[in-house]
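Why do we bother with a discrete structure alphabet at all? Because it lets us treat a fold like text: something you can write down, compare, and reason about line by line. To make this less abstract, here is a complete entry for HPt domain-containing protein. Read it the way you would read a sentence in a foreign language you are learning: slowly, and without expecting to understand everything at once.
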Amino acid sequence: MTNRDDNQTPDHLAYSVKKIQAFAQGDQTSLRLILDSFIQSTRQNLQEFENLLSERHRNDLAELAHKMRSMFLQLDATGLAQHLYELEENRLNDKQWRETAEVALRQAKELVKTIQADYQLNNTP
């Protein structure tokens, strides 16, 4: 299985499963189960994220960004994690908040699809 942390991968699709592999003690079945669980929960979170964004619920979105950020940090998806941190801090003006939320949403969706494809996980899109 590969990590996407090379120079040819766009920054927002770069990730590594090294930390998760260490947690799974190198067991590939456990790694796939963890990634599958991550994808399922992230999809649910992204649905909620979209709703909160469209309804402009900044405080609720800040809480959700905090929740999501830790797993993306475990995947070393630092660019996406930074966007989530900015949303979590909730100090952006309205225009910056919307732009940052839209970028984070798009990048998270793309990263989930990438991980699913890389690890041939059978979640429904």
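What the structure line is telling us, in plain words: The chain has one domain: 14-118. The radius of gyration is 15 Å.
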